[in-house]
Specification:
Elements (H helix, E strand, L loop, with lengths): L2 H7 L18 H14 L11 H8 L1 E2 L2 E5 L8 H6 L4 E6 L5 H15 L3 E6 L2 H18 L7 E5 L2 E4 L2 E7 L4 H5 L5 E5 L7 H9 L7 E6 L7 H7 L4 E4 L4 E4 L9 E5 L11 H10 L2 H8 L13 H5 L2 E2 L14 E5 L8 E12 L3 E12 L4 H15 L3 E5 L4 H11 L3 E7 L6 E6 L2 E7 H13 L3 E4 L4 H11 L2 E7 L5 E7 L6 H20 L2 H4 L5
Parallel strand pairs: 3-9, 3-12, 4-7, 4-8, 8-9, 13-21, 14-17, 16-21, 17-18, 18-20
Antiparallel strand pairs: 1-2, 5-6, 6-7, 10-11, 14-15, 15-16, 19-20, 22-23
Helix pairs in contact: 1-2, 5-6, 13-14
Length: 535
């Protein structure tokens, strides 16, 4: 039977003339909902078991990694209370890669069918929203033979599902659009990178709903951030693996959110091993390990290394200017002119300490160039490159665009033009340029990485006989200090600030040599070809 005729038979307008405009009586959205109800009565869409989120997901949602299998909570007991939490406001502080994106997808699927209405998912940037919409949410629905029958019209920012509509927007640049959507539930993902105003907009969107559900999800960054303030307003539950239950730890105050702390240690025995956690502890910066593995807010904003820490890097094992057979060398150049600035050339050689990616960085030569003319700086660097024959040379492009072109004319593609940017989401990117390779790096991340080498004993510097030179090296390495900057949006970010009383040319030349090494790794891809034969 034709669905539309079946619907009309159930109404008083079945006998009206065919020329009558039915839409004048039934708005499109209402008509479509009624047709959906009829389809279910006719058996085209089965009645779903919506009594429990976990049961629903296990029955109807497919495993995104293997769509031939159902979604499973096996060995994931810690997720069950989170899925079943009926609190109006939930905050999740999590490590990276902990299946919480799947949680967001599953909540949208379940509640859109359980409680028809308007649902909103938001992330900071539109590309991330688009990936979530196309690659996560729509694909998850389409994998299920049952759920895909409820899928209506879709585009990147709007998905009709069952009798609900799901909107997907970014919080950067689309706040006015979001503000105009009256919603029943909102998921704010990657909250740590959002303007604090996004939370106020979400509250405003929910103001007229009697459902008013909100999930706030994020990976922590600095302590004292607005995200940590939200976390402190929750009951801050921690998972007790022995008792198989979540234990509230914030019991001394009235709480506004139901809070869950999810760490990668919970994944040990699933897709994570203790050895992998330990490898990350050794290779990640301290802040990255605390944030992305432990899922904790990082409070160590003071200087990460001291004068004594850097002084201990000097070792008689490394001889100044002496190149060892079988080792491979990388150079860094920080261009500078003026009364307090110098051009600094450094030569570094990596030694593999622990396979596959933990290295000593042995500094075998440092030269401070302070001629009055920049052309003299270029000629001196050319002489040093010819003398040491490094595999790649990281050169500052901020102050050295012209100088780098001159080096490229002589040495060709071994020149790596290094540009500092402020983009923590993409810390290292290599691309070709008209004069050598172009390496774009996040300034904060790479300064963090450099200081982290010192704290882990991975930076080793030749022993110079002149203590004044050694003191200059140490003070130059310590010429940056961290500060927390609060943006107008309320977000707090860490940045490295140059101490105006001290030059930092050597510090950045050392970082550029590391960038040159990483760039060659990116291009070559074989450890023996970019490290050489080491004992």
């Amino acid at each position: 039977m034709n669905l539309f005729k079946h619907f009309l038979k159930k109404t008083f307008i079945y006998s009206l003339p065919t020329s009558f405009n039915i839409m004048s009586l039934f708005p499109y959205e209402s008509l479509k909902k009624e047709v959906a109800k009829v389809r279910r009565k006719l058996g085209e869409i089965e009645e779903l078991d919506l009594s429990d989120p976990v049961t629903f997901i296990e029955k109807y949602v497919r495993n995104p990694k293997d769509p031939t299998k159902p979604f499973s909570f096996e060995k994931r007991d810690y997720l069950l209370p989170l899925y079943r939490d009926m609190s109006k406001k939930i905050v999740i502080v999590k490590s990276r890669q902990m299946e919480i994106t799947e949680f967001a997808v599953n909540m949208l699927i379940y509640w859109s069918l359980k409680r028809p209405g308007v649902y909103v998912y938001a992330q900071p940037t539109l590309p991330k929203v688009a990936r979530f919409s196309k690659d996560r949410l729509r694909k998850q629905i389409q994998r299920s033979p049952t759920l895909k029958k409820f899928l209506g019209e879709t585009d990147v920012k709007r998905i009709e599902f069952g009798e609900s509509v799901i909107y997907l927007y970014s919080t950067f640049g689309e706040m006015d659009t979001l503000r105009g959507i009256p919603a029943d539930a909102v998921i704010l993902d990657e909250v740590q990178d959002m303007d604090i105003s996004a939370l106020a907009v979400a509250e405003e969107m929910l103001s007229h709903s009697d459902f008013k559900r909100m999930w706030l999800i994020g990976t922590p960054k600095e302590a004292g951030s607005k995200f940590e303030e939200l976390w402190n307003m929750s009951d801050k539950k921690e998972w007790d693996a022995e008792k198989k239950m979540w234990i509230p730890t914030n019991t001394d105050r009235e709480t506004y959110y139901s809070g869950y702390h999810i760490t990668q240690k919970m994944a040990i025995g699933l897709w994570m091993t203790e050895e992998e956690i330990e490898r990350k502890r050794k290779t990640y910066t301290k802040q990255r390990f605390v944030n992305e593995v432990l899922g904790e807010f990082y409070s160590g904003i003071g200087r990460p290394v001291s004068f004594e820490d850097v002084w201990r890097c000097f070792t008689p094992l490394i001889k100044k200017g002496v190149l060892e057979k079988g080792r491979q060398y990388y150079a860094g150049i920080d261009w500078g002119v003026g009364r307090k600035a110098y051009t600094v050339f450094v030569l570094m050689t990596p030694m593999l300490k622990e396979y596959p990616d933990i290295y000593y960085y042995d500094v075998v030569y440092v030269k401070r160039i302070d001629y009055p003319e920049i052309s003299q700086h270029v000629e001196e660097c050319k002489n040093l490159i010819k003398k040491f024959n490094p595999l790649a040379i990281g050169c500052d492009i901020g102050m050295g665009y012209v100088q780098n072109q001159e080096l490229y004319k002589t040495f060709g593609s071994i020149i790596v033009n290094v540009q500092y940017l402020n983009r923590p989401d993409k810390t290292f990117e290599v691309e070709p340029s008209i004069f050598g390779t172009f390496a774009k790096v996040d300034r904060t991340t790479w300064i963090d990485l450099f200081y982290d080498k010192i704290t882990k004993g991975l930076l080793r510097i030749y022993e110079d006989e002149d203590d004044d030179i050694k003191e200059w090296i140490v003070n130059n390495i310590l010429a940056e200090y961290p500060e927390v900057e609060e943006l107008p949006s309320g977000r707090r970010i860490k940045k490295w600030v140059h101490d105006s009383e001290q030059t930092d040319d050597l510090l950045h030349a050392l970082i550029y040599s590391m960038v040159a090494f990483e760039t060659r790794k990116e291009i070559v891809g074989h450890v023996d070809e970019y490290v050489g034969f080491v004992s």
